[in-house]
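Note to self: keep these together.
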Amino acid sequence: MTNKRLAFTLKESARLAETWVQARTGHSRTEIPAKAQIYTARLTLDITPELRQRIKLAAIGGGRTVADMLRQVLEREYPDSAAPQP
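Structure:
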């Protein structure tokens, strides 16, 4: 075993970091995912663990994410229109 020290320049370190980010996320930090361009507000609410489990099971059963499923529910309940819904 050698005690060889590897020295990276700042440019090499940045390139290695960018490669790592791309490998982990599937896109570079300079690319903005489409959902991030559309969905910019975060909503937090408290629910019971039982309700959370039912929501997660419904999402998995439908082959979608919890976030996508809840967005669809909210869009259906609160459509983007001036006319009141029955």
